[in-house]
Write a structure and sequence with these properties.
This protein has about 70 residues and is mostly helical. The chain is built from 2 helices and no strands.
Length: about 70
């Protein structure tokens, strides 16, 4: 696997960790400010995942990456 594909895989893992963190933070929050923060974390994770997915498809199309995440 190419180094760029390994980093792409780590990017998916990061987005997943961010989503878990947002859920955990939402469950533990005690004020609205934290809700805003974890909403931004969640939105950012979805955006990162969307961009990584597009990049993964481009890598597959180029023949660099076989399969998926």
């Amino acid at each position: 696997m190419k180094k760029c594909d390994k980093i792409l895989k780590k990017t998916f893992e990061l987005a997943s960790m961010m989503l878990d963190l947002a859920d955990e933070g939402d469950n533990a929050r005690e004020d609205p400010g934290c809700g805003i923060l974890y909403g931004v974390v969640r939105d950012s994770a979805y955006k990162i995942r969307q961009l990584a997915d597009s990049e993964m498809k481009a890598h597959i199309k180029k023949g660099w990456l076989k399969g998926g995440k």
